[in-house]
Amino acid sequence: MVLTLLMMKLVLIGLGLLIASSTAQIRTKGGTLIAKEGESLTLRCEVEDPSIAIIWRKNNDVVAVDDEILDTYGGYEIAMEGSTSVFTIKRVEPINSANYSCALAEPEVSVTFVIKVQVKPLVLISPDTGVYHARVGEKNLVITCHVKEGNPKPGVVWTKQAAKLPEDIKKDHEGARLVFPEVKKHHAGKYNCLAENVAGMDRATIEIHVAEPLQGEREGEYVDIVGMCLCCVLIVKMHPPHTRCWCHNICLKKGGQLLPQ
């Protein structure tokens, strides 16, 4: 029933049948408002004649008329305080970054509030394992700090816990990515990515473990099981590769070392 009455009111407004004094005006001035995500925000629209229908729009969509909310999913509240229409966004979200206008049905006058929502950063690190196992000599290890959210654009800072960030680590992508040209023992430790803007901050951590290279490892090593035979193939710079295979005295890898035959 309420919805039907509201729709009839909108139709009458469209037909210009809800007419009051042609001198009616809005006393409130519009402007730009900054809001933080999660907070509430109240817009006030004072008019000379409160008997005239007051329409609130988000961009081009009507969300409220007088003291009735049409967009019931927007998280809005509305009330009349004397000659002032009070429009409240109960919990500001990024989707509320928009133009909100208060308009009179007749004459066609309006004021606009430009809402800009500040959003705190959300940080993720890749690899996303939490702990990365590297070896001395590993080439071009890349650790990336992904800032998934944030308005205005957050600044990104990398730090190493309990130590200064090693000077032989390169930064690119505006400081969001760490590149280790060649992994060394002193690269082991915990690395923090911190993203911060006026709305807040977020932090993520990755720990890098650095082990010694495998003994006997040259350009590569692989293990293949054929029946009861375990073969260790060492790929070296000489050609053809040297292959060693034992079927009874098996060549095993343990702790990075090849056990004797």
From TrEMBL:
First and last residue of the signal peptide: 1-24
GO MF annotation terms: axon guidance receptor activity
Keywords: Immunoglobulin domain, Signal
Ig-like domain segment(s): 35-112, 121-211
GO biological process: homophilic cell adhesion via plasma membrane adhesion molecules; synapse organization
Gene it is expressed from: Cnig_chr_X.g25528
PROSITE patterns: IG_LIKE
Record's protein name: Ig-like domain-containing protein
Keyword flag Signal: yes
A UniProt-annotated Pfam family: Ig_3
InterPro entries linked to this entry: Cell_Adh-Cytoskel_Orgn, Ig-like_dom, Ig-like_dom_sf, Ig-like_fold, Ig_sub, Ig_sub2
SUPFAM superfamilies (UniProt xref): Immunoglobulin
Taxonomic lineage of the native organism: Eukaryota, Metazoa, Ecdysozoa, Nematoda, Chromadorea
